Amino acid sequence: MKRLIMILAFLCIALPAFAMRVGDVDGNIDGMSQVIYDSGELASALTNLTISGLNSDDDGAYEIFMRIKSDGGTQASYYVYFNGDYGSNYGYQYMRGENAVTEAKREGAQSRMRIESQPLTTSGVMFTHMIVNAAANLSKTAMVSVCGNVINTKVAGIDKQGFVWNNTDELTSITFGTNVADAYGIGSRIIIMKKNESDIGMRYGDLSVNGNISGSWTLVTEQDIDTAVTNLTISGLSGDEDILYRLSANLSSNAVTETVRIRFNGDNNNANYGYQRLSGSNASVAAARDAANVLGLCYADSINSQSFGVAYIYAKSGYVRSYVQESLWEISGTTINSVELAGQVWNNTADEITSITLGGSDANGIGVNTHIELWKLRLAEGDT
Amino acid sequence: MIKRMAFIILFLVMGSSAFAISPLSGNIDIVGDLTTNGHWRLLTESTVSSAITSLTISGLNGNFDEMYKVSCRLVSDTGGADIMMRFNGDSGSNYGYQYLLGSNTSITAVRGTANGISLTGTTVADNTYYSESIIYAESGATRTVLSSEIRHIAGMTINSIILFPSVWNNTVDNITSIGFSGIANDLSAGSNIQIWRKRT
Prior knowledge:
The complex is a heterodimer.
Chain A: H1 2-14, E1 19-22, E2 33-38, E3 49-51, H2 56-59, E4 61-69, E5 78-82, E6 90-98, E7 101-110, E8 113-114, E9 125-133, E10 140-151, E11 154-165, E12 174-178, E13 189-195, E14 202-204, E15 206-209, E16 216-224, E17 231-234, H3 239-242, E18 244-252, E19 258-264, E20 273-281, E21 284-290, E22 298-300, E23 306-314, E24 321-332, E25 335-346, E26 356-360, E27 371-378
Chain B: H1 2-15, E1 28-30, E2 34-35, E3 39-47, E4 54-57, H2 62-65, E5 67-75, E6 84-87, E7 95-103, E8 106-114, E9 117-118, E10 128-136, E11 143-154, E12 157-168, E13 178-181, E14 192-199
Antiparallel strand pairs in B: 3-14, 4-13, 5-10, 5-14, 6-9, 6-13, 7-8, 7-12, 10-11, 11-12
């Protein structure tokens, strides 16, 4: 018995020196960002949804993904507000591209944060990526990228929005509301992530996770290109389980002009894709929509010219697949030719995404030093 | 018997890849390295308690980490100049940008070179600024940075929302530090800087 106690004592003392190997981790890990709320795809429509029990003074920030599918008839607007505060305590500044029109607007004394690019029509889809900075003793801010109102291959608007809530109270709840009954339609989904602060929890030395850490971004693959290629396909995906993808590409061009586009399941038919973009090049601002094309995640205009793009993709089947992307195009030395903000759609509602192709426009145009990463937001085992 | 039990415990603790962790309460606090098939983890977080001029995060290894995410909430104390983010202390004119900015009813686009990556524009006293930046840090090519920023927050007024991509034209040096600096003591109490790194 003494021996056993000694062995156990040794293990307790010595464990930090070893890498403990585990399969899946369902708990939280300090210093990681993990999901704290997932509505799942709604099985019945909602008008309001309040997430309570938040503790922003500790959490500091939240990352929120919303994929909204309207069931509310025409002109459904969508709001977010904190701690049930529906007073005139919010301000915003946005910039927007809507077809060929660019628009910006600022207002204060608003009763909530209105997040849609334009009101959703029946069956319209919107996808947003929102970061809430909710530090203690300061006003709360939110920064949102919005791809919406999506119908088939038409993306009606792309927005970059900033919000402020003029209140320094701890944020304890977030309410998602709408002006039309049941406008959070069946299939809508809200996912909230937060950073895990240090806690008094289970302590380990090195931890080697061979499975997944639930509710966190997990790298699916990263690839460094050492021989120029025309296309790069990432296979073996399970979009219906992975839910969200984050795809980044740092392109080094091996062609005089090279566009790298995202395509799903080998579908090269442009008629199944659409986008709305807002862009700036030198002093020019432009917006454009195309309901039968794919906008490049990356674009370079000479050999060895670079481009960098990041896209967030709602991957689960059932509705059109919508995504937002931000990119730098045509980098040479200290010159960036253009900045691009875009909402895109793949109108396939049925097929599970099993592969993503980064398709180049020119033979062997994806050059050496190109780096590509695909991440998935893996939820708890069995949750889709 | 005791030997057997010890072996079983050792196997469970160190050898089994099928072992799942699901704590009843509290977090998992890893004091060493976390090895997975890839994740983002907070490397460092600094909150300013009294006004400072600059803050430098050292000991980085950009070639190993490959990507960083930098989240900044910056509160201006005195105002008057941009708060810049710089790599390896390089304050030469080696940075470029092309931004898209919405302010009130206008959208503007501007391209230029600079001696750092502006996270604020010219600061205004007591205003707050928020930014999120993704940095492709590995050497071998120009370093690319994709930033989104909310600038000049005062009360319920946001002066501007900006998509601010940048580059650092150094293709050779490993990024070992990221610095943040403004004019004297402009980084006020409440400013918070987080650096997240990719781990595989």
